[in-house]
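Practice problem: predict the structure.
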Amino acid sequence: MHHVILGAGPAGVIAAETIRKHQPGDAITIVGDEMEPPYSRMAIPYLLMGNIAESGTWLRKEPGHFEGLRIKLVQGRASRVDTGTRTIALEDGQQLRFDTLLIATGSTPMRPPVPGIDLPGVHPCWTLDDAREIMGLAVKDARVVQMGAGFIGCIIMEALSARGVHLSVVEMGDRMVPRMMGPTAGGMIKEWCEKKGVEVFTGTRIEAIEAATPLAVRLSNGRVLAADLVISATGVRPAIGFLEKSGIRCLLGVLTDEHMQTNVPGIYAAGDCAEALDKISGKMIVSAIQPNAAEQARVAGLNMAGQKAVLPGVTQINVLDTLGMVSASFGDWQGVPGGEQVELTDRAAGRHLSLQFKGDVVVGCNSVGWTDHVGVLRGLVEGQVKLGAWKDRLKADPTLLMEAYLASAQARSGWLGAGDARRR
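Answer:
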C-alpha cells in the first residue's frame, strides 16, 4: 500500500506517524510545498520574538526522524488529483500513485484587493520565508502597519510589539477579533492594546498603499500612515484549488464524514482545509485550529491504516493572549435562535464573561480576563453538560462556573474532571 499525504504541517505529520505505527510495512509519502523541514506556522511568532531559532519551528527536531520511520518527504505542489487513476500531478511534472490519500494542504493567506499590495515591504506572515523578510524590516522603532486584527493578526501583533516597533493596526470590523468576540469583549481588547501603545483603527479600511520611502498607507478615515513595513493579516482560506474537477466534494473546505473520509473512498482530509461536523451547532465547519487538526489527522491516519476510527465532531475553540490580556471563545459564542444569555462585565478589572444557553446547556461563551475558568468553560461547552437548576444560578451569578461544573458534569464523568478543572 502507498499512502500519500499532501501537506507537511502538523496534520500531515501526525497522520503519517499514525499510519506507520499501525502499518509498519506500507509506503508513506508526505508532499510539502516549501523547502523547509516540516514545521509549525504557530511557532512563527515565537521566532519573530526571538524566543526560538528557525529549528525551533520544526515539528520533529530529532535528526533523521522521518528517514527512521521510512516516511519519504517530497518537495512539490499538487496541481491535480485524478481519482479514477489514483494519481496526483505535481506542478513540476512529477506524478504520484496512491492507494490512500490525505488532503492536509492547510490554508493560504487571503490577498485583499488593495492597490499596492504587491509592493516591496508588504508581506503576509505565513511562511518561514515571510518571517525572514519581516525580521529584516521590523527592527526597533520601525513603523509597521498591520492590516487585520483577527485571531492570527493578534498573534502577529504580539510578536511585532516584542520587537519594539511602532505599530498601527487597521481592522475593517467594528471591533478587534470580530469573528471570535462580541462587541464588549472586542472593545475591551482594543482598549487594552491602546494602553500598551498600539494604535488601533477599527471600522477602517486600507484603501491604498503607495510606493514611497517610507510607504504611504491611505486609510478610509482620511489618515495617511508612514510605514517601513506593511503586514497583511486579513484571514486565510483552504488551499484546495487543485481539487477542481477532481470529483472530490468541497464547499468552503473538503467535505468529510465521521471517519474524515471524503465522498471518494480511500481519500481523506484533515486540518485547515477540511470541513467537519461541529458537534455543538450540527453544521459543517472549517475549524482552523491545531488541536482539531491533530485529532482529525489521527482519525484519518487510523482509517487509512485499516483501523476503524470515528471523529465525534469538532468544536469552535479559541484562546488568545493579546499583549497579556487572555480571552477565550468557545462554541456558538453569538448565541442561538431562541436561546438565552447572561453577561457580566467589570471594565476596571479587565474582565468580561458572556454565556449563551440553549435550554439548560451552555452552547457558547466569550470571556476576557477569566483565566481560572478557561478549562471549565471549554468542558461545559464541549461536554454539552446539562445544568438543570444550575442554569438559573449561573444566570444570576456567572462566576459560579466551577461550582456548576462540579455539580453537573463530574457526576456523569464529563469531558473534564474536577482535578483537571482546578489545574487549568
